[in-house]
Amino acid sequence: EDVPSQTFDNKDYFCGKETFPVYESIFTEEGETIRKIAIEIEKPPQIEIHVWTIRKGILRHFYVEKLSKREFEGLPYFKLITRTTLSQWKIFSEGEAQISQMCESRVCRTELEDLVKVLYLEKSEKGHC
């Protein structure tokens, strides 16, 4: 008998959960660092970009924008950093909302770095899902 191949439509799966590509862009202009974290979502097909403006370590401005895949493909500087699950993205988004309030008046470099680490999935050993 033929055993069906497990291609999952060329999508990566992590412990049975679908994963989505996460991109990052960091650039500095006029003393400000603009850091963008983007996720590519299938339904609806769009890119959600979280934009942080950091001046002297303080989060000055934070917002979310949504683009079509075509618009996103035309943007420079983005590189694929990982794949994540929607549940991890939700944790990231909730943490981001807390940090954006907490970091309006103080330096939050480590908090922002730790938040991005939430998106990286640890390779699970078989049977530990």
Automatic annotation (TrEMBL):
Gene Ontology molecular function: BMP binding
Q: Which GO terms describe its cellular component?
A: extracellular space
Is DNA repair among this UniProt entry's keywords?
no
Q: What is its main location?
A: secreted
| Record carries keyword Glycoprotein | yes
Listed A to Z, the keywords are: Developmental protein, Glycoprotein, Repeat, Secreted, Signal
Chordin-like protein 1/2 C-terminal domain residues are 10-129
Any idea where this protein resides? Answer: Secreted
Report the record's Gene Ontology biological process terms. Answer: cell differentiation; negative regulation of BMP signaling pathway
Tell me what this protein is called.
CRDL1 protein
Q: What is the lineage of its organism?
A: Eukaryota, Metazoa, Chordata, Craniata, Vertebrata
